[in-house]
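Dear H.,

Thanks for agreeing to be a second pair of eyes. The structure we're designing against is below in token form, covering all 227 positions.
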């Protein structure tokens, strides 16, 4: 099956079935819009960057974190007990994206978070789909993460720490809330040692897609239950 070429003026823009290349690349092109991103996630795809032609990936395996399975190490438990890092939600979404974009990363020059991605995800935030989890120390933003919630699935986009453990604290807090709200999983996209250490598991693409179909078609659950 040839690589799918995306046309934003077609609805749906992505096929129901696709055959990604060995590295997970499944489609190219399109114009980044909230509608296109939501359709992509529902079909197991995500944009690698906003730079044209936009590459859409569906890796195999897919890294997934089940909220009740998040691993909290002894050192992180001590950090949580100290209570010097405060977690807030959806108060500075744009600032979290900016912090993620500016974070230096190994074997990477520049950032994949392009201006059109910032604009589109801010629109998704205004629409109630994209959310930020923010970590503060003495009132200053020092880390966190952002992603998209649909149905009972949370799609993690990026994490950042300006001080040690800031993103880990955000992720643990998020998993506690997602578990209480009945979310099925956090999509972590790619396999990384950092997220494996936090309890994430690599799933075959076929299993991920089956779980995804069940999760995204349930009623939206973000904030649906009190802790």
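And this is the sequence the design step returned. I haven't edited it by hand at all.
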């Amino acid at each position: 099956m040839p690589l799918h070429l995306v046309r934003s003026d077609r609805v749906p823009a992505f096929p129901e079935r696709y055959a990604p290349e060995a590295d997970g690349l499944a489609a190219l092109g399109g114009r980044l819009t909230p509608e296109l991103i939501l359709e992509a996630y529902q079909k197991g795809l995500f944009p690698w960057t906003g730079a044209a032609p936009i590459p859409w990936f569906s890796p195999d395996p897919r890294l997934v974190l089940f909220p009740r399975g998040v691993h909290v190490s002894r050192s992180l438990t001590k950090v949580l007990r100290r209570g010097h890092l405060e977690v807030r939600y959806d108060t500075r979404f744009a600032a979290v994206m900016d912090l993620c974009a500016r974070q230096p990363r190994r074997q990477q020059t520049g950032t994949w978070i392009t201006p059109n991605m910032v604009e589109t995800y801010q629109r998704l935030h205004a629409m109630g789909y994209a959310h930020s989890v923010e970590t503060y120390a003495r009132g200053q933003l020092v880390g966190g993460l952002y992603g998209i919630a649909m149905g009972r699935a949370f799609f993690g986009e990026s994490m950042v720490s300006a001080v040690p453990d800031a993103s880990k604290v955000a992720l643990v807090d998020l998993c506690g809330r997602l578990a209480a709200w009945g979310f099925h999983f956090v999509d972590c996209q790619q396999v990384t040692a950092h997220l494996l250490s936090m309890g994430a598991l690599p799933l075959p693409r076929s299993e991920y897609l089956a779980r995804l179909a069940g999760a995204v078609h349930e009623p939206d659950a973000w904030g649906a239950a009190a802790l």
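Two observations from my side: Helices lie at 34-42, 74-82, 93-102, 115-126, 166-180, 193-197, 205-216. The radius of gyration is 17 Å.

Warmly,
E.
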